[in-house]
TrEMBL record:
Claim: Metal-binding is one of the keywords in the record: no
Transmembrane segments: none
MF (Gene Ontology): DNA binding; DNA-directed RNA polymerase activity
Alphabetized InterPro entries for the sequence: Pol_omega/Rpo6/RPB6
A Pfam family assignment: RNA_pol_Rpb6
Protein name, UniProt field: RNA polymerase Rpb6
Lineage: unclassified sequences, metagenomes, ecological metagenomes
């Protein structure tokens, strides 16, 4: 998912609690679901940021040769200005972009969140592990 084009708020705001009961009928389960999604988003953004910063790092970093790289600074600033992962996850929940499933017993526990993004993240992680293993 392209988090750079999200319509999520950049600041927190007061929400109607009833908006969070529509899928699970339990605020605590909803908060748990949003929290798990926020962690996924956070990991995805973190990996993306590290990949972009890695492009600009020099291979021979000596203490004397360390200098500020303008591109790295601009990339970091851009990511700092994005909405926080929690706000993105709340926005996804309110726009019905998170799929929720009950567990086998029907207790309504957040068992698994199925997202298109999740498979893409796993594929990226596997590719990065393979790259690290080759080094």
């Amino acid at each position: 998912m392209d988090y750079k084009r999200t319509t999520a708020d950049k600041t927190t705001k007061t929400r109607n609690l009833n908006e969070f009961n529509k899928v699970t009928e339990n605020v605590y389960e909803t908060v748990s679901m949003i929290s798990k999604r926020a962690n996924q988003i956070s990991q995805d953004l973190k990996q993306e940021l590290y990949r972009k910063i890695e492009e600009f790092t020099s291979q021979s970093d000596n203490l004397e040769e360390v200098f500020e790289n303008r591109e790295q600074i601009e990339i970091t600033r851009f990511y700092e200005q994005l909405p926080k992962p929690t706000l993105i996850a709340i926005n996804e929940y309110l726009n019905d972009q998170i799929v929720y499933r009950n567990d086998e017993n029907g207790k309504g526990v957040v068992n698994e969140m199925v997202l298109e993004v999740q498979q893409a993240i796993e594929n990226k992680e596997n590719k990065e592990r393979a790259k690290r293993a080759k080094r």
